[in-house]
Specification:
Sig_transdc_His_kin-like_C, 9 helices, transmembrane, alpha+beta, 2 domains, five-stranded mixed sheet, two-stranded antiparallel ribbon
């Protein structure tokens, strides 16, 4: 049966979050539009109020100039601005009535009419006085009425402009907490979205990244999964499925390489067992021939001791071979590196030609955490590759030293034909080999690479064609160290 259909999709949640934010912003935008439309309307009304006040100031200025210099053009300019003011009063009647009230608006109209009548009367009286008439008393009274009406008009316009400014300030004060509330809600929504992204995407992706790096180091561990039914859950399930297959395939590859190595070692093991068995046979025959002589009992004991020694040697060789071939889990423990190298060389002694000189420069006492069987397997793969590269004659050097950072540096250098530059980057790839068909599976160096990585170590190769090859292995002294 397949997995249940995914119910909670991250993309649905993201879409829902974006839709929520969009709706929220649309509502706020509509609210802001209404507010700003009102503020814009008030600004227009304020502009009209300022225009009315400026118009009043203009006809008052020309009024004063007329009474001071008695120029007819000043009187005409005053009348023109007064007419403009009357036009503004009529065009903005609705707004003026709302701002000043009906009584205030009617008073402003009355003052404007009174001012116009007073200005005309004063103009007529001033004309008569200039012609020689005696109307100074009536002229003074007309001018006083004129100025009183003008002051009332200015006061009304100033009140109107002040009211518009106050209304704009009031709208801005009302909008400020709304804007702050929106920003807080937006920040809270962003925080919730960020938290959701971290919980649903960032942290799981970090877990997957770490697990992928572990796979690259040869640690095939699955990710603990709570069966969360979303895209991340699907990815984790697919990743775990892949890791299980990789682990199974890796174990099969290791076992296949072991079996291949065992086939290579068969002739060497036969050679190693042949000599002690021949000695056992010869010693036994001599012992049988001399059993009747009473003078050779001590000699018989020596022969028996030789038999025991050779049998022990044969058992040791067979035991090492069985230990190498046995399938087992990765279990690091404390081992002396020099002893492991010696045991490896003993296992493949029959595979090393007489013309190949092996030099080991590894001091005893370098004790480190390792899975002995896996390290032996890695060393066998490297040594056999070196022997095959030297084609029956040459020198193999094995060097081990303590390095910085609680690590061990192990170098295997041969005097073989070397590795071509175009081949060197691919030598650790699975199934890659330059050998003839039937002489290699292409898995030896790949498995070696995986073993070293599983020990949290590092392996690299250096070579020049015709100058041999060098494999440099860096391993931590203790398990878990980088």
């Amino acid at each position: 049966m397949g997995r249940p259909q995914t119910l909670s999709k991250i993309r649905v949640r993201l879409l829902l979050g974006f839709v929520t934010a969009f709706v929220f912003m649309v509502l706020f935008g509509a609210f802001s539009y209404v507010y700003f439309a009102r503020i814009e309307q008030r600004l227009v009304f304020l502009s009209h109020a300022d225009s009315m006040l400026n118009t009043v100031l203009e006809f008052r200025r020309y009024e004063k100039n007329y009474f001071l210099y008695h120029h007819e053009k000043d009187y005409q300019q005053a009348l023109a601005y007064l007419g403009e003011f009357d036009g503004l009063l009529k065009s903005q009647a609705e707004h003026l009535s709302a701002g000043l009230g009906q009584a205030g608006y009617r008073l402003l109209l009355a003052n404007a009419g009174r001012y116009e009548e007073a200005l005309g009367a004063a103009h007529r009286m001033l004309g008569g006085a200039l012609a020689g008439g005696d109307s100074s008393g009536e002229l003074a009274a007309a001018i006083d009425g004129l100025r009183s009406a003008g002051q009332q008009i200015i006061h009304g316009c100033e009140v109107l402009a002040r009211q518009e400014r106050h209304e704009i300030q009031r709208l801005l004060r009302q909008y400020r907490p709304v804007m702050i509330a929106f920003l807080l809600c937006l920040a809270a929504l962003g925080a919730v979205a960020a938290h959701g992204l971290i919980q649903r995407l960032v942290r799981p992706l970090k877990v997957i990244e770490d697990a992928a790096q572990d796979v690259g180091r040869g640690q095939f561990r699955v990710i603990a999964w709570n069966d969360r039914r979303d895209e991340i859950g699907d990815v984790i399930a697919a990743f775990n499925h892949m890791v299980r297959h990789l682990r199974q395939n890796n174990e099969q590859m290791i076992q296949t390489e072991k079996l291949t190595s065992l086939g290579t070692l068969t002739s060497g093991v036969a050679h190693e067992l042949n000599n002690p068995l021949n000695n056992i046979s010869t010693s036994t025959q001599i012992l049988l021939e001399e059993l009747d002589s009473p003078d050779l009992q001590e000699y018989h004991r020596e022969l028996l001791a030789a038999i025991e020694q050779q049998v022990a040697k044969a058992k040791d060789i067979v035991g090492s071979l069985l230990e190498f071939a046995r399938q087992r889990e990765f279990e690091p423990s404390r081992h002396d590196l020099r002893a492991v190298i010696d045991e490896t060389l003993k296992l493949i002694k029959g595979e090393i030609p007489a013309q190949v000189q092996v030099e080991v420069d590894a001091p005893a006492g370098i004790v480190m955490d390792m899975d002995k069987a896996h390290i032996v397997q890695a060393l066998i793969n490297l040594i056999i590759n070196a022997i095959q590269a030297m084609d029956g004659a040459g020198r193999l050097s094995i060097l081990a030293r303590l390095a910085e950072g609680e690590t061990v540096r192990l170098e295997l250098t041969d005097s073989g034909s070397g590795i071509a530059p175009e081949v060197l980057p691919r030598i650790f790839d699975p199934f890659f080999t330059t050998k003839e068909v039937g002489r290699g599976t292409g898995l030896g160096l790949s498995i070696t690479y995986g073993i070293i990585e599983r020990h949290r170590g590092h392996i690299q190769a250096e070579s020049r064609p015709g100058q041999g090859a060098r494999f440099i292995i860096t391993l931590p002294l203790r398990a878990g160290e980088a």
